[in-house]
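pasting for ref
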Amino acid sequence: MKFIEVFSFISGALINLSSFNRVRTVYIYNYKLYEEYKSFYDLVQKKFNIPLIHP
C-alpha cells in the first residue's frame, strides 16, 4: 500500500490532511518556528499523532 507523504514547517492544513487514508503527515523542525509556536506543535504531536522530525 502506498502512502502520500506531506511535510511542512507549520500548517493547520496538515491536521486536516492527517485524517485522510494513506496520507502520512510530518512536521519539519525549525527552531525559530518551534520556539514561537511550541504549544501548537505539542498539541499536534499529542492529539493528532503528527510526528516532528529534525533535519
